[in-house]
Amino acid sequence: MKVHHLNCGSMRPPLVPGGIVAHCLLIETDDGLVLVDTGFGTHEVTDPAQTIDGLSRRLLRPLLDINETAVSQVEKRGYAPGDVRHILLTHLDMDHAGGLRDFPNATVHVLDEELEAATNPRSTKDKMRFPKAQREGVTFQTHTATGEEWFGFEAVKNLPGLPEDVLIVPLIGHTRGHSGIAVRSTNGWLLHAGDAYFYRGEVETPPSNIFALKMTARQTETIRAQRLSNVERLKELKARGDVEVFCAHDPVELARLG
Ligand SMILES: [Zn+2]
Question: What is the domain count for the chain?
Answer without folding.
Answer: 1
